[in-house]
């Protein structure tokens, strides 16, 4: 959940431990014995096979007896698994509504705009102590997956006590474009910069008037859009038009000169600029084929926050 104060990275349910305990065993029962996606047919088959074998044994015995259990056991198992199937279907259709009405976007793990802190279970740390990087992973077929991650620069102060891993966050994007990862980091950076207005995205539009910097920016007419621009857009256009607008947005993001943008981290971290001084001009081409001849460009000096805010249309 995102609003004018924090970008939450942790969602919990506002429910008791007793409810969690009983829900766990309820899910185990309904999902295991269900006829749909569970072992219901297998359990019923075992019950029927057992009854048939018991009946055959009685048939060849000197004094055959056919107790009610031979018929009652398969029937009972059928009813038992049938009830589990019905309850599972009800759980899958109704639990989402219950979850949405009880979910709690925790402030314990969040990027806080007003304080400039990143809150986590390992502690609270300034946002400028975090570095962003794009992690590439490949499967057995050679398909690449790129993920934007934001990691704390000083892991000795933020390691998880149980796993020993450094504090880091993962941010999803809409497409597989590398430029989308750059745009995501740019949007998060502007969200945490109180000298700039909030990123102009649908999720943040209802909260723009609550942020002082954004309110002054909009009242000065710099946004250039109505106060309910995104709400009206989604209400008026159809899915075909939305797809066209999304495609245009992706083209703008991919065409933006991400490799030649200034690196603001070089201002606050001594020796940071010595690690690398240039970036690929086409970040998408370099990420998919880093061994090819890709043109690198030097990073310019850090621009002012005012000029950075003027580039919002590129990331929308």
TrEMBL record:
Species assigned in the record: Halomonas elongata
Protein's UniProt name: Uncharacterized protein
Domain of life from the UniProt record: Bacteria
Chain positions covered by the region annotation Disordered: 256-316
Keywords in alphabetical order: Membrane, Transmembrane, Transmembrane helix
Chain segments annotated as transmembrane: 21-54, 66-87
The UniProt record lists the keyword Transmembrane helix: yes
